TrEMBL record:
<dbReference type="InterPro" id="IPR005135">
    <property type="entry name" value="Endo/exonuclease/phosphatase"/>
</dbReference>
<keyword id="KW-0227">DNA damage</keyword>
<keyword id="KW-0378">Hydrolase</keyword>
<dbReference type="GO" id="GO:0016787">
    <property type="term" value="F:hydrolase activity"/>
</dbReference>
<feature type="domain" description="Endonuclease/exonuclease/phosphatase">
    <location>
        <begin position="129"/>
        <end position="331"/>
    </location>
</feature>
<keyword id="KW-0540">Nuclease</keyword>
<dbReference type="GO" id="GO:0004518">
    <property type="term" value="F:nuclease activity"/>
</dbReference>
<dbReference type="GO" id="GO:0006281">
    <property type="term" value="P:DNA repair"/>
</dbReference>
<dbReference type="InterPro" id="IPR036691">
    <property type="entry name" value="Endo/exonu/phosph_ase_sf"/>
</dbReference>
<feature type="region of interest" description="Disordered">
    <location>
        <begin position="1"/>
        <end position="20"/>
    </location>
</feature>
<keyword id="KW-0460">Magnesium</keyword>
<keyword id="KW-1133">Transmembrane helix</keyword>
<dbReference type="Pfam" id="PF03372">
    <property type="entry name" value="Exo_endo_phos"/>
</dbReference>
<feature type="transmembrane region" description="Helical">
    <location>
        <begin position="98"/>
        <end position="116"/>
    </location>
</feature>
<dbReference type="GO" id="GO:0046872">
    <property type="term" value="F:metal ion binding"/>
</dbReference>
<keyword id="KW-0479">Metal-binding</keyword>
<keyword id="KW-0472">Membrane</keyword>
């Protein structure tokens, strides 16, 4: 004989304990709540504004303090507002706020959801790595060994000082037969290098270089660059004019490169979302965006909030991309696998 089990509600009536019944009861209570659509209007406005800010970030002007580029640098972090607003909307029991919250949630997923999945592939690849080692690094040899431990075939280092270069050369000599240091940037390779020269990025001193690396799969043009730093100043906002000029010059050099396959390694002091890097990003692909797992934030090393260190490619296929363990630098090293 089948017997139905019921529980007594606080009013003495029978209530079905099954989850579906509880959800229906909750929805019934919400429908009977006359203020459910009137509460949380401010939360709804904030949610909608957040979504619009992400959609229209390219329209934010750079004329005053480069606020557009500043917003784009940290654009993924706007997604943190979604769970905060969700909790507040639930506490306020506001249907209006919950519906409005769909706007920033959908926009954020459309912009960055693809970065949350692992897109790495297989096959024979060339591994490249880059690291801003920090001019004040107190352990250059240890830093070099950490980067080399990635197994990279080609390694780029930025922010090299004259005093520290011998230490990096000594630490990497056993694994990398070929190398060149140009100004404050250097390139180490397991394969022969030719046509190595500085690249003028309009600074007056050398902070960029290029070289043709003869890999087993053919020639690859490798650029190493350290674009000027940006600053956030109270009286001037996001000051980045020198960085922007250098990015334009670097983009022009890459566009003129005679080798069809190009990889760019370095600290660009800007993210892929930053419009100021369009001269470079418009013609190249980010390995992290194409084949990485997660955002791959690289700076600051103590609490990474942005990926300003980049590996970009043109004419080759990104296979994987990742960050390497922390060194004595204030940046994390990054690496990528590419198929020529």
């Amino acid at each position: 004989m089948r017997q139905a089990y019921m529980t007594e509600s606080g009013h003495g009536s029978a209530e079905d304990p099954r989850p579906g019944s509880r959800i229906r009861a909750l929805l019934d209570r919400l429908r009977r709540d006359p203020g459910i659509w009137r509460r949380g209007v401010v939360l709804a406005v904030v949610a909608a504004a957040t979504g619009l800010l992400m959609v229209l970030h390219a329209q934010i002007p750079n004329r005053i303090g480069n606020v557009g580029s500043l917003t784009e640098t940290f654009l993924p972090w706007l997604g943190l507002l979604v769970p905060v607003l969700l909790v507040l909307a639930l506490l306020r029991r506001s249907a209006t706020a919950l519906v409005a919250l769909l706007v920033p949630a959908i926009v954020w997923l459309n912009l960055f959801g693809g970065l949350l999945t692992d897109k790495s592939g297989g096959g024979e690849v060339l591994t490249v790595a880059t690291h801003n080692v920090n001019a004040e690094n107190t352990d250059p040899e240890g830093t070099a060994r950490e980067v080399a431990a990635s197994g990279a075939d080609v390694v780029a280092l930025e922010e090299l000082t004259g005093d520290a270069v011998p230490a990096y050369e000594k630490a990497l000599a056993s694994q990398y037969r070929y190398h060149s240091v140009q100004g404050t940037v250097g390139l180490w390779s397991k394969y022969p290098m030719s046509d190595t020269r500085p690249v003028d990025i309009q600074l007056g001193w050398v902070r960029a270089m290029r070289s043709t690396v003869a890999t087993p799969s053919g020639d690859l043009s490798v650029y190493v660059a350290h674009l000027p730093s940006v600053r956030v100043k109270m009286n001037a906002g996001f000051t980045a004019s020198q960085r922007d000029t250098s990015a334009d010059a670097l983009g022009e050099a890459i566009a003129r490169d005679p080798v069809g396959r190009v990889v760019l390694l370095g600290d660009l002091n800007g993210t892929m979302n930053d419009r100021a890097l369009n001269a470079v990003t418009s013609q190249m692909r980010s390995t992290q965006g194409a084949a990485g797992d997660g955002f791959g934030f690289s700076w600051p090393a103590s609490f990474p909030m942005a990926r300003i260190d980049q590996i970009m490619v043109k004419g080759v296929e990104p296979v994987s991309s990742w960050t390497l363990p922390r060194t004595a630098s204030d940046h994390l090293p990054i690496a990528a696998g590419i198929r020529l």
